[in-house]
């Protein structure tokens, strides 16, 4: 089924995954209104096969909505997977929603699920970028203060220079230390102290030891 096809995809396998999903959608006959209503009634009574049929019949809709969002930061298979979750949510909540048009209701839920996933991914990217910036600022400041003071600066001294709280300074220090222990090359590429030019940070005032 659709979920199994999506989960089986890996790096470089997105095209194959989507090819299989599109073929599955093409080969699944659409539901007549009466059949859809009957399946919804059976699903409400706990018939799992009805859910399978309803999900398969709406796979084309999920793919269409996913393709309309491919420029927003998530790979197409991920969008389809999120949309499939939204479709299941639509099935679970339709009876109590007071709505009468399942297809419109399902489209709304599928779109909302995809949009929420896109927003979460964008927030995660922003947080990662902010953390890299903070780690860079911390590492540069720590290196330059060590040179100035001829000793390891305290958390309070680093926090004062960066105008951060001590708690924030301690957290970023842990991020940098963890990155070095785990050889996080992506993060370390941005905060390698040997690449720091002291002249770039001449505005750092000398601290009395």
Description of the molecule:
By secondary structure, this protein is mainly alpha-helical. The chain has 2 domains: 2-117, Rna Polymerase Sigma Factor, Chain: A; 125-201. The chain contains 10 helices and no strands.
Identify the overall geometry: elongated
The helix tally amounts to 10
Along the chain, the helix and strand elements come as HHHHHHHHHH
Number of domains: 2
Reported for the largest beta sheet, the result is: none
> What is the rounded distance between the termini?
67 Å
Structural class: mainly alpha
Mean of pLDDT: 83
Features:
Rna Polymerase Sigma Factor, Chain: A, 2 domains, disordered C terminus, mainly alpha, 209 residues, 10 helices
SSE layout and pairings?
Layout: H1 2-7, H2 14-27, H3 33-44, H4 48-57, H5 59-67, H6 76-97, H7 102-149, H8 155-162, H9 166-181, H10 185-191
Helix pairs in contact: 3-4, 5-6, 5-7, 6-7, 7-8, 7-9, 8-9
Quick recap:
The chain has helices at 2-7, 14-27, 33-44, 48-57, 59-67, 76-97, 102-149, 155-162, 166-181, 185-191. With 209 residues, it is mainly α.
